[in-house]
């Protein structure tokens, strides 16, 4: 038993007839293309395991067709997994019967979709209150709760509007409010901002960050956009052909990409915005050093001014221990590499 908010163990989804007979046979080791050619079945998710800690923002990213949507839908059995285990908040989703599953979806895991899925004939307030209504919460109480959440997502004044009177960004705020109204322990986002204009999209990302600070909910966020993943994620799972290629913090994914697929994703990222000093520092050489002391988990860009303003190397610490030194050259190496990309 772990205290993870979400545990996914040996999860498989194979689409097609006879899919459940493939796992455990040599055919399960075939590549996606070979399995399709031999059996007609398509691997959506292949033997995926990971844990998400309470309060963590866990991003799943990969190119189109890599299996992100299938994975997130398997978490609440909107798609039935072929094999494996999913435990949310101590509840084994894979063993739940229909009514337990409905209850789990209502109270433990809410989903925000790209196509908002709002009820067009209902006002904002009743869209947000819908989940509470289904749970049998009385009209007065659910409207009060919904009004609170509408305010929380910045939609005060629009309670009585209908979805088609709102912009895409605002509709997605309603989607977010509706998911939050159930007070779930886990929020699942399936590419929620992909259809929005870049500026609105940025606003919504900031909104998610703000809500996360305020509410501390555990989040699983699907995206194909690395910038979005780096901005939001405490950790990022990178998928290809249904499989995990790498799981790491943003600086690990950028600083030590697992293979060329990940390297390709990260090659255009401004490294100084993501890498921490840990990735650029040198070994301490035993010489006495004075001046500024910086934390190893500080982002290079944020530390740059201090380092560049100081003559000679600065100490980098982990707690009380000096773990390295950085000087102008170490900082400039990252920044100059970045400029050569531009
Ligand atoms: N119902 C289905 N039947 C057969 N194959 C499917 C089905 N749903 C998805 N697939 C296949 O499973 C693989 C993973 O698809 P999935 O939609 O999960 O990828 P994705 O990473 O979410 O892509 P996108 O970003 O385009 O949504 C793809 O090869 C897809 O064609």
Question: How is this fold's topology laid out?
Answer:
Blueprint: E1 6-15, H1 32-39, E2 42-52, E3 57-61, H2 68-75, E4 83-88, E5 91-92, H3 98-107, E6 109-113, H4 124-134, H5 139-152, H6 168-181, E7 186-190, H7 198-215, E8 218-223, H8 226-232, E9 235-240, E10 243-248, H9 250-255, H10 260-266, E11 293-295, H11 300-309, E12 314-318, E13 321-326, H12 328-339
Parallel strand pairs: 3-8, 3-9, 6-7, 7-8, 11-12
Antiparallel strand pairs: 1-2, 1-4, 4-5, 9-10, 12-13
The chain binds adenosine-5'-triphosphate.
Task: Give a structural overview.
InterPro entries: AAA+_ATPase, ABC_osmolyte_uptake_ATP-bind, ABC_transporter-like_ATP-bd, ABC_transporter-like_CS, Gly-betaine_transp_ATP-bd, P-loop_NTPase. Belongs to the ABC transporter superfamily. GO terms for molecular function: ATP binding. This is Glycine betaine/L-proline ABC transporter ATP-binding protein. By secondary structure, the protein is α/β, with parallel strands linked by helices. The chain folds into 2 domains: 6-108 and 184-269, P-loop containing nucleotide triphosphate hydrolases (Rossmann fold, 3-Layer(aba) Sandwich); 272-339, Roll (CBS-domain). The protein has 12 helices and 13 strands. Strands 6-7-8-3-9-10 form a 6-stranded mixed sheet, sandwiched between helices. A 4-stranded antiparallel sheet has the order 2-1-4-5. Strands 11-12-13 form a 3-stranded mixed sheet. Strand 4 (83-88) and strand 5 form a beta hairpin. The longest helix has 18 residues, at 198-215. It starts with 5 loop residues before the first strand and ends with a helix. The mean pLDDT is 91.
């Amino acid at each position: 038993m772990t205290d993870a908010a979400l545990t996914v163990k040996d999860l498989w989804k194979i689409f097609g007839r006879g899919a459940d007979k493939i796992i455990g046979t040599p055919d399960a080791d075939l590549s996606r293309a070979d399995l399709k050619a031999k059996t007609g079945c398509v691997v959506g998710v292949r033997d995926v395991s990971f844990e998400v800690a309470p309060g963590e923002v866990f991003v799943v990213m990969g190119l189109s067709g890599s299996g992100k949507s299938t994975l997130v839908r398997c978490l609440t059995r909107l798609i039935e997994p072929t094999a494996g285990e999913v435990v949310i908040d101590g509840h084994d989703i894979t063993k739940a019967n229909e009514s337990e599953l409905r209850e789990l979806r209502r109270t433990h895991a809410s989903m925000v979709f790209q196509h908002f899925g709002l009820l067009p004939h209902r006002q904002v307030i009743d869209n947000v209150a819908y989940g509470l209504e289904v749970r049998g919460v009385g009209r007065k109480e659910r409207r009060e709760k919904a009004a609170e959440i509408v305010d929380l997502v910045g939609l005060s004044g629009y309670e009585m509007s209908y979805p088609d009177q709102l912009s895409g960004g605002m509709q997605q705020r309603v989607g977010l409010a509706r998911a939050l109204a159930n007070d779930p322990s886990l929020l699942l986002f399936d590419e929620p901002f992909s259809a929005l204009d870049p500026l609105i999209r940025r606003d919504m990302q900031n909104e998610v960050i703000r809500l996360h600070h305020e509410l501390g909910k555990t989040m699983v966020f699907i995206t194909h956009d690395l910038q979005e993943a780096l901005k939001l994620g405490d950790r990022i799972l990178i998928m290809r052909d249904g499989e995990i290629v790498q799981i790491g913090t943003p600086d690990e994914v950028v600083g030590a990409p697992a293979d060329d697929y990940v390297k390709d994703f990260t090659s255009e990222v401004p490294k100084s915005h993501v890498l921490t000093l840990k990735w650029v520092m040198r070994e301490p050489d035993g010489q006495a050093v004075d001046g500024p002391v910086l934390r190893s988990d500080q982002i290079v860009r944020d530390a740059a001014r201090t380092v560049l303003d100081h003559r000679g190397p600065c100490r980098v610490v982990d707690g009380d221990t000096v773990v390295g030194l950085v000087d102008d050259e170490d900082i400039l190496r990252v920044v100059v590499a970045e400029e050569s990309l531009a």
